[in-house]
Design brief:
The protein is α+β, with helices and mostly antiparallel strands. It contains 4 helices and 4 strands; from the N terminus they run αβββαααβ. The termini are far apart.
């Protein structure tokens, strides 16, 4: 009879051990799920809201200009977006939009196809346009970037 009592005690200990392991695994699973939720959804959205500053931009009307290639009649068609540091600069650019467009047309119409045949040359033209536009807008209304949204040469 003492053997059956010992076996009964072993079974009770095994049952308690299994119960403890199951509870422990459940706690780990719930904790891991909660941690994952906070990492992927909670802190991520709040940090993105802090990190993404407001973007001030103005898209100019489409430019279509003849290029200065003498051998062939070529033209360039492009859409340009200007990005500003603040909203006040957009207001200033709206007032001087006619000057900005005229300057961009003047610069682009003096270019040839070879001025755009590599990324370095395109970037050089972008920097040239950026400087010319900033010269027109003045010190307090500078643009920080100039983007070509469409760029077609025919």
């Amino acid at each position: 009879m003492s053997k059956s009592v010992e076996n009964l005690e072993k079974v009770k200990k095994m049952g308690n051990l299994k119960l403890i392991i199951i509870v422990l695994l459940a706690v780990i699973f719930v904790g891991g799920t909660a941690f994952g939720y906070v990492v992927f959804f909670g802190s991520n959205s709040s940090s993105q809201a802090k990190e993404s500053p407001e973007i001030y931009k103005m898209t100019l009307d489409t430019f279509t200009v003849n290029l200065s290639d003498m051998e062939y009649r070529r033209y360039l068609r492009t859409d340009i977006t200007l990005e500003f540091f603040n909203e006040k600069a957009i207001e200033e650019a709206e007032l001087k939009k006619h000057r900005v467009r005229d300057k961009i047309i003047s610069i682009l119409s003096h270019k040839s196809v070879s001025d755009f045949d590599s990324n370095q040359k395109l970037e050089k033209s972008r920097v040239e346009l950026l400087g010319a536009v900033n010269e027109i807008l003045g010190e307090n209304s500078q643009i920080k970037a100039l983007y070509f949204e469409n760029f077609i040469i025919q």
